[in-house]
């Protein structure tokens, strides 16, 4: 697998990411532990994704892919106060009778900003269809591929490979690459990955030390 990793795919080797990743795959962990670990990972990914920006640049435009990307954009919002935030809502709908899956757009709300690098944030890259559509929306409204960075907690290898192949000039930053079977498990009832990111928790309860 290592030999076939796309050149524009960057899998984090940060120890902070490595120490928090196991929490995301533990179905018995509390909601607080899960959310704290997820945000901790995204902080590290934000540092890595911004490492090659020029010394002087306009604060980036942030695009959160709903639902999980909403909360996960907070580290980048803290890094770049005042950065405009866009929202993209995409949903995979399966027609069981026709045995077909459709990608539908239920929200696209983007700021009228152009001269900025673009950061797209999502919780996972599963099949790659949602990620590819989010990048296409960013390209149509803003910049060429080389100005776009995509950050995600975890990605299936097939999904990440699809995204990187269709958009070879973007920079993709993920915490971990997992198998398609593992990605399928994340969507099941005992995980509900995106749901756990989106549940409302009192803000003071999130001010807890992350695992270092």
Order of helices and strands: EHHEHHEEEHEHEHH
Number of strands: 7
**Would you tell me the overall average pLDDT?**
83
The CATH topology is Rossmann fold
Uncertain spans, ≥5 residues at pLDDT below 50? 200-212
- Total discrete domains: 1
Q: Gyration radius, to the nearest Å? A: 16 Å
- Report the CATH architecture: 3-Layer(aba) Sandwich
Short structural description:
With 212 residues, this protein is an alpha/beta fold.
Describe the fold and architecture:
The chain is an alpha/beta fold. The chain has a single domain, classed as Rossmann fold, CATH 3.40.50. The protein contains eight helices and seven strands. Strands 1-7-6-5-2-3-4 form a seven-stranded mixed β-sheet, with helices on both faces. Helix 5 links the parallel strand 5 and strand 6. Helix 1 packs antiparallel against helix 2.
Keywords:
single chain, 212 residues, alpha/beta, Rossmann fold, seven-stranded mixed β-sheet, 8 helices, 7 strands, 36% helix
Write the layout of secondary structure elements.
Elements (H helix, E strand, L loop, with lengths): L8 E3 L3 H10 L6 H19 L11 E6 L1 H5 L1 H6 L5 E11 L4 E10 L8 E8 L3 H13 L6 E9 H10 L4 E8 L1 H7 L6 H6 L14
Parallel strand pairs: 1-7, 2-3, 2-5, 5-6, 6-7
Antiparallel strand pairs: 3-4
Helix pairs in contact: 1-2
């Amino acid at each position: 697998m290592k030999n076939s990793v796309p050149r524009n795919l960057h899998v984090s080797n940060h120890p902070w990411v490595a120490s928090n990743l196991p929490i995301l795959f533990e179905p018995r962990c509390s909601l607080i532990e899960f959310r704290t670990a997820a945000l901790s990972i995204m902080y590290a990914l934000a540092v890595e994704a911004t490492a090659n920006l020029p010394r002087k640049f306009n604060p980036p435009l942030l695009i959160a892919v709903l639902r999980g990307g909403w909360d996960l954009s907070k580290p980048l919002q803290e890094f770049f106060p005042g950065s405009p935030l866009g929202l993209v809502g995409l949903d995979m709908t399966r027609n069981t009778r026709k045995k077909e899956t459709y990608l539908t757009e239920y929200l696209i709300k983007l700021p009228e900003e152009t001269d900025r690098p673009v950061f797209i944030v999502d919780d996972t890259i599963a099949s790659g269809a949602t990620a590819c559509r989010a990048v296409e929306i960013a390209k149509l409204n803003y910049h060429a591929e080389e100005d776009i960075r995509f950050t995600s907690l975890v990605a299936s290898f097939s999904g990440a490979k699809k995204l990187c192949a269709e958009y070879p000039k973007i920079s993709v930053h993920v915490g971990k690459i997992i198998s398609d079977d593992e990605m399928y498990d994340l969507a099941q009832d005992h995980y509900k990955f995106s749901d756990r990111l989106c549940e409302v928790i009192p803000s003071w309860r999130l001010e807890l030390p992350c695992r270092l």
